[in-house]
Design a protein that fits this description.
Helix content is 6%, strand content 41%. By secondary structure, the protein is mainly β. It is globular, with a radius of gyration of 25 Å. The two termini are 29 Å apart.
């Protein structure tokens, strides 16, 4: 899960503003709270759990990783998997869950106010999930604020359809990873790169009120014309998860907070019950959720002409130097983005922005293994 619950918690807890004196509500949020982020799927690979301590109410510092903890996952058959700390606060192991089994997360912390305490999730059953039927996109015509433009700018809305004909999966959650190719408009060595990012929003859907478990035209991703994602080629990998009604309620409340942060009267995350508790002291609150979900994935590629897409390199050129004088191709203050040193008349076009001469400032030159030319 790429949504950083700890950041959301901190942003809700912190009240700031100009010359206004912050109002500190009289609630018991002065202690560190353990924040748990993680999900177990049936996809073979690295399963991860993230542990951190939230900050007390009114502090602006970022959350602190929980290091040195003992983290295991057990199932209802008696099997257990130990997870190893792969980076500060990040614990992982290579295995996959099996639909139909129940899994329990076990944590024993080391350090902080929860030193030596044991935490445990409720047993979570891995429910089967149907395949994603289709992912498709539609162009969205935007208001034309330029009377001299030949066409109106266009955005992109991506939808998905899915259906469980057995009517067993009633609650869905989706996340995604997106990748796009971009080109620098100059004759430099590193002028083609790729960028990959993961979703940070909460996408959920309940079909419990419907006669059939069918989801149509779910808006999974909107891409505005303020980015260059669609200028060359774009790919979206969508992951679909089956979740329980209890987990759906948790994410629904988190979504409400995520979309309405800022009001003093919004529900704070500590008031949202998760599925993790302290074994040694039930009065100690724990934030977050241990998600257990079967998963299906589907990818879409988009290579189309979208009018009016942003060009982040339109202001790259700083100057043009004429003559045969030698100019360093790369140094701390100027980059050559076009070299016409021969034949005469010789000149070089320069930029004071390294990102205009090297695409690796934004992305990577390594083509993704799934990329189609």
């Amino acid at each position: 899960m790429k949504l950083n619950i700890a950041i959301v918690i901190i942003s809700v807890f912190v009240l700031t503003g100009g010359c206004i004196t912050p109002f500190m509500p009289d609630i018991d949020e002065s202690q560190e709270l353990l924040v748990v982020e993680g999900k177990l799927t049936d996809i073979p690979g690295l399963q991860t759990i993230s542990l951190s301590f939230s900050m007390p109410l009114g502090q602006k510092s970022s959350a602190t990783p929980v290091t040195g903890a003992q983290v295991t996952i057990s199932d209802n058959t008696g099997s257990g998997i130990s997870m190893f700390e792969i980076s500060p606060g990040q614990y992982g192991s290579y295995f996959n869950g099996i639909p139909g089994r129940e899994y329990t997360l076990h944590i024993r912390t080391k350090g902080g106010l929860t030193n030596g305490l044991s935490f445990q999730s409720m047993p979570m059953k891995m429910l089967p999930v149907p395949e994603i039927d289709s992912i498709y996109y539609e162009k969205v015509t935007l208001p034309n604020n330029n009377p001299f433009a030949s066409s109106a700018p266009e955005a992109c809305q991506i939808y998905l359809n899915t259906e469980d004909k057995d009517n067993t999966c009633r609650f869905f959650r989706w996340d995604y990873s997106e990748t796009w190719e971009f080109h620098l408009p100059f004759e430099v060595a590193n002028n083609i790169c790729w960028i990959s990012e993961s979703s940070s929003n909460i996408n959920i859907k309940s079909t419990s009120a419907l006669a059939q478990t069918k989801v149509s035209r779910f808006p999974i991703r909107y891409i505005s014309n303020s980015t260059d994602r669609l200028r060359v080629k774009y790919s979206l990998l969508v992951n679909q998860y089956s979740i329980s009604e209890e987990e759906f309620i948790f994410w629904d409340k988190m979504k409400n907070i995520y979309e309405n942060v800022g009001s003093l009267y919004d529900m704070i995350p500590a008031a949202i019950p998760g599925n993790i508790y302290c074994v040694d002291d039930p009065n100690i609150k724990v934030l977050g959720y241990f998600s257990v979900s079967a998963a299906k994935s589907k990818r879409i590629f988009i290579k189309d002409n979208f009018y009016g897409q942003a060009d982040p390199y339109r202001y790259c050129i700083s100057d043009t130097i004429w003559g045969g004088a030698e100019i360093p191709g790369l140094n701390s203050y100027v980059w050559v983005v076009y070299d016409h040193s021969f034949p005469p008349p010789s000149y070089r076009v320069i930029s004071d922005n390294k990102g205009c001469a090297d695409c690796t400032v934004r992305g990577t030159k390594t083509k993704p293994v799934f990329w189609k030319d």
